[in-house]
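Narrative summary of target 7.
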Amino acid sequence: MIVVSPSTVAKVAGQESPSSTRLLVVLAVFSLLLVAAGVVLLVWWLRLRRQTDSDTAVLQPSQRIARNRLQSIWERFLARLPSSVRTSIPSYEHFVVFGNSGSGKSALIARKVLIVPAQA
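Modeled conformation, tokenized:
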């Protein structure tokens, strides 16, 4: 004689117990939440990466400035100055301040800090 449990009969008949149905629903909801959290983290990471890449990006050949661009900018700067000031400009030392956005370049210049040139 073969003894079959009621749960086996229910499984064969396609009926599941209420507790297993609840478990499947909970697992499905948990899986969806996990996937949604993964998508949110992926989007956040990609935005962060894109921002970091743009901060440290090397200019492509098409984005590089022309050879005479700096000279052109300097000449336009001088042209806007009054002639009395323009003649005294060559007596002052010129320098360029590089740095990331918000790193304090303007504050450094505003404080008139003595800048020692790098030794070559």
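Residues 18-55 form one domain.
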